[in-house]
Predict the 3D structure of the following.
Amino acid sequence: MSQPYVPQEFNKEDEELKCHPSQSGSTATPTLFENANAAKAFSTAFFEDQLHQEDDLFDEINQQLNQVLINDTQRPSLVSAFQADMSSYLSHEKLTKNSRKMQLEYQNANLKEKEYVFNTFVRADIENISLDKYKHFLLEKILEVGPPSHKNIILDRIFQSINKLIKDLYACKVMQKGLEVMISHPNDSPQQLEKYLNFIHSDTPQMKKIYVDKIANQIIQKSLEVLEGNHLYKLLQVVSKYVLNNNNEKFELSTDQYGCLIVNKIIDIYPKLFDVQTKTLCNEIITRAIENSSGLTRRQYANYIIQSILEKGQEVHKRLLMDQYLIKDFIPMSMDKYGSNVAEKAIVYGGSQWRQRLWEEVTVSESSFKRLVNDQFANYPIQRLFEYLDQPLRQEYLALLNKFSDNNQLNNHGQIVQKFAQANYNVKRYTQKILQTEKNKQIKNSQKNQNQKSQTKSQNITNNPQKQQQSDNGLKQMQQEQFQVMMMQQMMYYQQQQQLLLQKQMPQLYYQDQNYLHYGAMNQEQQMMMFRWQQQQQQQQYIFNQNMNQKNGQ
């Protein structure tokens, strides 16, 4: 045991003894230093008290940890992930990495850990987290995999500030995730879902601003996508008032930059609807768009509605749109800045019968075709039309262009159309030529392989050169005319000749009870023996017939 530290003034024993009352003649009470046993007892009791105090402190800390979070299952990486620096001066890669780590650690945490991080890092700052570019993903993860109590707290806090958060890009994403969760688990958040439905079904000036807002209208699109039944029907009733319908407010969604996205979403969800009432209302909205297609195709944003019908709409809607409106309006529509985009989609997504009618409409006179070719907007759908026409119509198309070119009736746009058509025509001809060449090569290779197989089979028949030549010719003819038929009838023929074969040619395969062995009950070796015998019989019969025919001919 190491010696205790001794001050410098007591470095001598005799001077140290003079300080004690018994040695210095003092009348003071004797200290513990005079009794060696008492000193030892004092030191032991002192250190035991210190140890007990440290044990009590250690137990108290452990008890606090158990109450707050964690015992042996504590993962320091969870806390460190939520304590990561998310300051704005960090790089995008660093902030993304920290955000993903937070999501991963939370997803893999147990219930106590989720309680701890939610109460410590999330609960008091939900609004600011939802507005953050990187942290809002954490709220989405909690809504996805967190306990229902935490989900409801987040949904309540967001709904309290919905007028502010619904127009923010990141908070709106959190709201969309919350809507998905509420719809998929309605029993977990019934009150929150009811509040949201009352909000989304309201017909107020505030909701009209949401319909045409760049960010907020995304929550309307998400609602149309996830709501079902009566909830969806009520929302469509409100939206239908402002889609190509007379209303006192003169508020129109189809011509708005962001309102047209809501109409496009209605077109997308139409095939997925099963409720008759909702499907009928949705069909009315789409039909109104088709009836007003002449005006919508010439509007900057509304033309996307007609494009969506052509691209994603049902066949009945496409047929109505093409037959009644677009084909008649194709020439003036193609010469419009925005209508030319719709004309291209009509060519791409229209069937062959509609392309035929479009070609007839375009070439009703040479002057109309020349006007479209030379137009700054119409030349684009005319080029697209050439790509989808059949070969005879392409030749007519090129003939007209060459005629205009010879008469110097093509401007810069028309010359571009002519070059495009000629290049596309040559490329397709070259492609067809390559495909035909490859097809011919495959046919020649297959014929060559068949000839080689027929030669190897004929060599096994006989070694006589005369018979060899006859068998080669016979096998070639048989492969061309009778091979497929023979293979189809082979199994039936085996079963018919089975009993005769076993009795006469192969008695070792015949049972003593005179019942022939079924072909399916034979093993592989027995089946091969039967196959070789049958093949030899057919070849010999064929050669015999050939010889008889030659003799009859002579």
Remarks:
- Residues 56 and 508 are 97 Å apart (CA to CA).
- The radius of gyration is 46 Å.
- The chain has 30 helices and no strands.
- Residues 6-33, 69-74, 505-520 have pLDDT under 50 and may be disordered.
